[in-house]
Amino acid sequence: MFVLLPGSLLAGEADELQRIRKNYIRALLPSGDESEQLVRLLSAIPKEQELSDQMVAELHQRYPLDVDKILTYLRAMKPDGSWADINYADTRRSGWEPKTHAERVLEMTKLYCSTKTSYHHSTEVEKAIRNAMQYWFTTQPVSLNWWQNQIGVPKTMGAAFVLFENKLTPAEREGAIGVMQQARFGMTGQNKVWLAGNVLIRGLLQNDFELVKAARDTIASEIVTGQTEGIKEDWSFHQHGPQQQFGNYGLAFISGMSFYSGLFNGTSLAFDEKQLTILSTLLEEGYRWILWNGYMDISSLGRQLYHNAPIHKAFCVAFAAASLAESGLPAADTAFKHIMNENFLPQSGKNSFTGHKHFYCSDYTIHRAPQWMASVKMASTRVIGTELVNEDNLLGYYLADGATYYYIRGNEYLNDFPFWDWRKVPGITSYETDAPLPRMQKAKTGNESAFVGGVTDGHYGLTAMQLNRDGLKAHKAWLFTDEFVLCLGAGIASDSLLPVTTTIDQRGKQADLLYLKDKTRFFHDNTGYIVLDGTSCTAEATTRNGQWHDFMQMYQPETLEREMVTLSLNHGTCPKDAAYQYIVLPASTQEAVAAFKPSRIRIIRNDAKAQVIILPKENIYCAVVYENNLSLGSNFPVKTEKAGLYLVIKQGKEYKIYYDNPLSSVGCSIK
């Protein structure tokens, strides 16, 4: 037990620090009852061999202790406390090898402190922990990536220091404090939270209640909405400017905040009901939408396109929800049950959570039908589409140009990235060439148009994107129903001699690619595709080679092979006013796709001024209007004096109008 110096703290403060320590240790060494079912499900998934993502590293720490593996660390440790298989001179900014040293220290410390193994308080393990810590204190490895020095390593080593605190010698305590001093209060969003969390650990090591309280207050200050970075008004999450970061910084945020809600539980520093409600709502109105059958939507991964990332990210959300549910807040418990029931428990065949949502702060659309989900990710002059940081996402230049994914099982695109033609991201319109992809610039959005938005009644949805990038222009629209997605493109124009294509889909081959009718209808992987306007469509299944290292350089070079299915439309070179019309029917059958009657959909207009659709049977009228004071004629039941997206639903003799003006700085408005 750590002994407090007489008079160094008020009695109440000493008790509070001790409660926080106990809560921290309980979180690091769970008894097994809080998230037992999740741990069991997670344990069925093989661990990753190459790690860079902090969230995945922390997820791996939830696996049951692999005693045999940890013992190999002890046997392989050199006399100076290092390991020969770690390159301590590594200069990579992502996948920095010395971080592995810190992770091994934490694993050994967990083994030492766990009462569930025969190595509890083992002299051999204790000696190895001291040697490994001393090596770090002495050599002080430094990464070229500031994040590892100030956040990643202190966060991992800090957990080990708390577990081992009662055994630390005065010199070791000073060494530990030195590691934690790399972090200082500052920055914004999740970086601010990470840094404050590391300062908090230093406060515990220094027995400084005021520093712990200051760290807690800094952490809690980010549990708000509407700031430049952090939780947005539509319950998406931004970091690195106006950029959707659900699966990267946002995931670290909700995971960290859920952890801290338990850490401060039972003390005067506990989060209040308002703060817990905000976190619960972020889960319910944000993360719940982007998960499908235990997978996170690709467009929420950000730059972190790691192996098995959709699986790992979804598990991280579930563990965060489980931690927050322990707060006792009913809304938190409800969010946890929803996420568990919809993603990790046996399903009856139909997902119970359906609806349509456009995240207007992030140019991001989700549609959830009973048997499938689809997403569209876009960018505008307001929203940055994607980023290239630390050699992550080297090929993702087009990932926010209208990327459209369709999920039935959830794993439709799992680990396809090494085999992608990155100029044929599903849903995008782009140039076709073998030239290297351009490198993204962090400050650029990727699209020089503000006309990007979405509108919905909660069931049907209309999304539109005016693309203006690198000399290529296109007006793209998506109409979502629970049976199909109608995709329209118009005004496609370019002065380049490069061919222009629109990609319908690109995914790993799961079954035969079938041609159903005059090469205008196709079927693959329980999904149908119907080309309506006679545009030349290429549908092919080809074997491709690729490497994870090509776009995520933390991976070691290794060539892999997979058969891929791609469907794309050819608009030719130098198009002036090209267009497309196609339908996607997810969770369908070959027979249903062959029998589908396009006459059910009336496309009244599809040009650079307006795209107008009527679903007569449903009494639905949709219009994307790109100019003010444009008359759509008698076929459209309401006046369209302002540019924008119109979703009109006839109910009896009345019309209910849903309208979005993408050119408004306010965002989505419903009338």
**Largest β-sheet summary:** 8 strands, antiparallel
Radius of gyration: 27 Å
Query: How much of the sequence is in beta strands?
Result: 15-25%
Computed structural class: alpha+beta
Provide a count of the helices.
Answer: 15
Distance between the termini: 62 Å
* Overall morphology: elongated
Helix content: 25-40%
pLDDT averaged residue by residue:
93
Number of strands: 25
As laid out across the biggest beta sheet, the strand order is 10-11-12-13-20-17-16-15
Poorly predicted regions are 1-7, 666-671
Q: Describe it for me?
A:
The chain has 15 helices and 25 strands. Strands 10-11-12-13-20-17-16-15 form an 8-stranded antiparallel beta sheet. Strands 21-22-23-24-25 form a 5-stranded antiparallel beta sheet, with no helix packed on it. Helices cover 30% and strands 23% of the residues. It is elongated, with a radius of gyration of 27 Å.
